[in-house]
Design goal:
Layout lengths: L4 E5 H4 L1 H13 L13 H11 L5 H12 L1 H8 L4 E5 L5 H10 L3 E6 L2 H14 L4 E6 L17 E5 L9 H14 L4 E7 L4 H8 L5 H17 L8 E8 L4 E8 L3 E5 L2 E5 L4 E8 L3 H10 L5 E5 L5 E6 L1
Parallel strand pairs: 1-4, 2-3, 2-5, 3-4, 5-6
Antiparallel strand pairs: 6-13, 7-8, 8-11, 9-10, 12-13
Bound molecules: N,N-dimethyl-L-histidine (AVI).
């Protein structure tokens, strides 16, 4: 039986970097935690649960765009290439493409290598003909594609509007890095569009409180990296819409005075003080094209839904 190859196991190598990164974010006067720490094993499962919520429109809208434009998309992407999945998670979205574009090889990249290992092994059993590899990589710092990965028709797959979790200069940096690695291939990307506040608020503050659990769980993820003593009961999930910056902003707000300690330091939070945990940018069709153009992509094919909630783009 063919087994997926795991090329790198980044998280353990970078424990000290993560410690320093989290500590310095917490010690800022406006405390923040990078959203990548949302995706520990439990956080990854909670995110999967979010994608099943009826209020969380991005996943279903994107899926419907793919289904409704299947033939055109297959024609644009071509067949038998190398599919490189950024933030692969449970690899479900890539699996959706397997039957259509029949990639010769599949490289899954994710921050949470534990979650990836399991998902990729199951997928390899199901598709023994595709050569599969996984990398645990923090590509928010730098995207490194090993030389061993084929340069034949590389298609980077970045669905779900994950690009929206970066502030614009970082998003453009990542897009430029992707462009540099496409080797004449392209980027197949899903990008969320700006829409009415009530739709956004329902999606990011759902009545089942799964998004609240996902956001609060970042404190447990931080405890495991930092050795800190955050208690999730001391914080509340807060969602704000920043119209000027065209983004949803997630925070954790202290519901009482809190003192958090970790080896070598402490941080106190006043009641009502917030920790920023995530930005989720929403774009217009114009602003997303400009962003992709600035990163080097000039040939864009764009598919969207009737409500113009979401856009799927093949960029070269
Ligand atoms: C992964 N990312 C695109 C999600 C989003 O919509 O920004 C993460 C998320 N945060 C809260 N709900 C979902």
């Amino acid at each position: 039986m063919q087994k997926p190859v795991f090329l790198e196991d980044t998280p353990s190598e970078h424990q000290q970097d993560f410690f320093n990164e989290i500590a310095s974010g917490l010690l800022e006067s406006n405390a923040s935690i990078s959203p990548k720490f949302l995706y520990d094993p439990l956080g990854s499962h909670l995110f999967t649960a979010i994608t099943l919520l009826p209020e969380y429109y991005p996943t279903n809208t994107e899926k419907n765009i793919l289904l409704q434009n299947r033939d055109e998309i297959i024609q644009a992407l071509g067949k038998q290439g190398t599919l490189i999945d950024l933030g692969a998670g449970n690899c479900q979205k890539a699996e959706f493409l397997f039957d259509a574009i029949e990639p010769a090889s599949y490289l899954a990249i994710d921050f949470s290598v534990e979650y990836l290992t399991d998902a990729l092994s199951k997928l390899q059993n199901k598709y023994p003909r595709i050569s599969m590899a996984g990398i645990g990589m923090d590509f928010t710092q730098q995207l490194n594609i090993p030389d061993t990965v084929s340069t034949t028709s590389r298609i980077f797959f970045y669905p779900g509007s994950s690009i929206g979790n970066f502030v614009t200069p970082e998003a453009e940096k990542l897009l430029r890095e992707i462009w540099a690695h496409t080797a004449g291939g392209g980027l197949f990307i899903g990008i969320d569009l700006m829409k009415a506040d009530e739709v956004l608020l329902a999606a990011y503050d759902d009545p089942l409180k799964i998004t609240a659990a996902f956001n609060l769980n970042i404190l447990r993820s931080v405890n495991s990296h930092l050795g800190s003593n955050f208690d999730i009961r001391d914080f509340e999930h807060i969602v704000e819409i920043n119209h000027e910056e065209m983004r949803v902003e997630l925070y954790l707000e202290a519901n009482k005075e809190v003192l958090v300690t970790w080896p070598g330091n402490t941080r106190s939070f006043k009641k009502g003080e917030r920790i920023h945990t995530e930005h989720s940018h929403k774009y217009s069709l114009e602003s997303l094209q400009e962003m992709l153009n600035r990163a080097g992509f000039h040939c864009l094919k764009i598919w969207t839904d009737a409500n113009q909630y979401f856009a799927v783009i093949y960029a070269q």
